[in-house]
Amino acid sequence: MAAPANSTTFSGDVWAEFRLADARDVPHLHSLIHQMVELEGITDIFPATEELLASTLFPSPARPPFTSFTALILDLSPFPVVQDSSSTIASRRLDLSASPLADPEAAAFASPRGGGRVTAGFVICFPNYSTFLSKPGLYVEDIFVRAAWRRRGLGRMMLSAVAGRAAELGMGRVEWCVLDWNKNAIDFYEAMGAVVLPQWLVCRLSGAALDKYKGNQEEAVDGKAAE
């Protein structure tokens, strides 16, 4: 099948780098999150903005990675990656000789790192805590790979790297949620050794339901919320 117009074709050796994101990655992060929301069919209630992402993920002063909200980016490069010990989490070489890959979004997702790189995915994670284990853990809020780069082992690479970092930090477990209709994702996670817990349900307060509790603590202190 012919490559789509304006696409970039990757063939031969391609190098993947999974690295810590910085503020330069915010536009791509926002676009990737929007693509993920499109898959879930909820773009009509998507409130995230580049400004919100920049202020919440990349505050000043910066926090050490994996001790707070941590954004990670997947870049693909037609040239060998020179690893940066301060930002590279994992890297690998892909051999596309037998199956060249056409990326119709390559220009839109040109990496801010330059060098012909394209951004293909991301992970957002942050620490949590298990009272049962009496250990911190890591919660993966999102893991996403653009359509052109799926089924190349890149999702496994990213999740493996995050799990490996959690293990190195002495954390007790890594957790995340998956939509119950996403059988491909469930099968992928189970193949990686994850246990899906159907007996647990997600409970959430957000929007107006959360806002109505503003000031509730002050009322309790004043004795106005005794029950």
Automatic annotation (TrEMBL):
<dbReference type="InterPro" id="IPR051016">
    <property type="entry name" value="Diverse_Substrate_AcTransf"/>
</dbReference>
<keyword id="KW-0808">Transferase</keyword>
<dbReference type="InterPro" id="IPR016181">
    <property type="entry name" value="Acyl_CoA_acyltransferase"/>
</dbReference>
<protein>
    <recommendedName>
        <fullName>N-acetyltransferase domain-containing protein</fullName>
    </recommendedName>
</protein>
<keyword id="KW-0012">Acyltransferase</keyword>
<dbReference type="GO" id="GO:0008080">
    <property type="term" value="F:N-acetyltransferase activity"/>
</dbReference>
<dbReference type="Pfam" id="PF00583">
    <property type="entry name" value="Acetyltransf_1"/>
</dbReference>
<dbReference type="InterPro" id="IPR000182">
    <property type="entry name" value="GNAT_dom"/>
</dbReference>
<feature type="domain" description="N-acetyltransferase">
    <location>
        <begin position="60"/>
        <end position="217"/>
    </location>
</feature>
